[in-house]
Write a structure and sequence with these properties.
174 residues; mainly alpha; Ferritin; 7 helices; 0% strand; binds fe (ii) ion
Length: 174
């Protein structure tokens, strides 16, 4: 049987590390934004980066308010594959100053098409409503704040797929 203490411990780890993951995703999309020439695709990346950094702050503060925040956890280990996918994509981007369409597609595929990979957006879209249901402080306002993140994630999933589709189907501009 899972005790309340264990649930709160796990919830604290998930919340804390979700915030860490969002921060890493924000950096990743900022790198994509600054290395992409196509201004519209770059703008989509900027939007995802700004949203992710706002998610990181909100989740961190939710963890603090609910007293679930954990300073003793190695999120890189806890998130394992989720985190290493972001790291691998980031190290690939660090080798490039600008991305050609082909390289951009490679970078996106690193994020999206790895076997069995559930994107960060999907991960948080599924996880956040679950977390909201188990918070030790039950508040409609907190749930609304978390639902708002879920709505953003739905947009991110759609937007990332649309960008990849554009890169796959459209011939390179000029
Ligand atoms: Fe996110």
């Amino acid at each position: 049987m899972v005790s309340t203490e264990n649930v709160e411990e796990l919830l604290g780890k998930v919340l804390t590390c979700s915030s860490v993951l969002e921060r890493a995703v924000a950096e990743l999309y900022f790198a994509l934004y600054s290395k992409t020439d196509d201004p519209i695709i770059a703008l989509v990346f900027k939007k995802i980066s700004l949203d992710s950094s706002s998610h990181a702050s909100i989740l961190e503060e939710v963890a603090t308010i609910t007293k679930l925040k954990r300073g003793d956890i190695n999120c890189r280990e806890f998130l394992a594959e989720q985190y290493s996918i972001v790291e691998r994509a980031m190290s690939y981007l660090e080798t490039k100053t600008k991305l050609s369409r082909g390289e951009l597609r490679t970078a996106m595929e690193k994020l999206l098409l790895l076997e069995n990979y559930v994107g960060e957006e999907t991960y948080h879209r599924i996880l956040i409503p679950l977390m909201a249901g188990f918070l030790p402080i039950q508040s409609n306002l907190l749930v609304e704040l978390m639902n708002d993140i879920v709505e953003d994630e739905k947009f991110h999933e759609k937007a990332v797929k649309a960008v990849l589709e554009t890169l796959t189907t459209e011939s390179p501009a000029s």
